[in-house]
Amino acid sequence: MHPPRGRAAYWPAPPQCLLLLDLDNTVVSRESAVARWAQDFVLEHSLDTSAVAWLITIDNDGLTPRERFFAEVRNHFSLKPTPEELHRAYQDRYPRHMHCCPEFLDHLANLRTRGWKIGVVTNGLTRTQGAVLKHTGLIQYLDGWCISEAEGVRKPDAELFARTATRCGRDISDGGWMIGDSIEADIGGAKKAGLHTIWIRRGRTWPKYLPTPDHTVDDVTEALEHLTRAHTESGTRSR
Question: Is 143:118 a contact under the CB 8 Å cutoff?
Fold first, then answer.
């Protein structure tokens, strides 16, 4: 098969060209967004600047359930608003601190022109994660997505990966790739679902007692560069 003369070379993607992405601290820097939100929160409530570090610590990289987090915040600072009111304000403002790197979005667009189907599979609240997808502009680069609260199932359950693949028009049994930063939820879950994996290390070392991911990188742009190179080399060999 040869591309038509006068046009850029285009090689159709095989069925397994499915790419699933984690959201927080993979596609977007949740760590940076929480720090910016904490600074705004401290200013809004006239707290000491040392409260920023406390908020980030209690957040525990998003692992503290939001109900408990805002109950602790209210009690610690003796705030007037209820935990529910604080949470609603957070859901309105936090997504505005999320941004996607333009280079990353360019890579997504490039993969889609090559025939890849791209989806997001994320744990979290529907309102918050949905707002992040829209605010960052990421939603226009996706073929489908699943948010755990809306689906009633969380990573690392393989079912969430399978549903996302279906939303993207692919069958999970045909394989594909998953990029994420969570050892258990993203890499472990994707392996159970039969996907290849790329781990965002975030300065960490992979545990020696676990099966290793297929590839390890420092950020999601590097991961997409790896997939683009691999796909290009595969297309070259198949000519």
Answer: yes
Residue 200, both tokens: 């965002």
Q: pLDDT tens, position by position, for the chain (239 residues)?
A: 333 333 333 344 454 599 999 999 999 999 999 999 999 999 999 999 999 999 999 999 888 999 999 999 999 999 999 999 999 999 999 999 999 999 999 999 999 999 999 999 999 999 999 999 999 999 999 999 999 999 999 999 999 999 999 999 999 999 999 999 999 999 999 999 999 999 999 999 999 999 999 999 999 999 999 888 876 765 545 44
| Burial of residue 98, with CB atoms counted within 10 A of its CB: 0-12 exposed, 13-18 middle, 19 or more buried | buried
- Reply yes or no: is the peptide bond before residue 156 cis, omega within 30 of 0: yes
In whole angstroms, give the CA distance from residue 7 to residue 130.
38
Q: Do 144 and 119 contact (CB within 8 A), yes or no?
A: yes
The pTM score is 0.86
> Encoding tokens for residue 50?
């040392």
- Give the closest residue to 76 by CA, choosing from 122, 41, 106, 118: 41
**Length of the chain, in residues:** 239
Give dist(CA 131, CA 125) in Å, integer.
Answer: 10
Euclidean distance between CA atoms 238 and 55, whole angstroms: 53
Query: Residue 180 belongs to what H/E stretch?
Result: strand 177-180
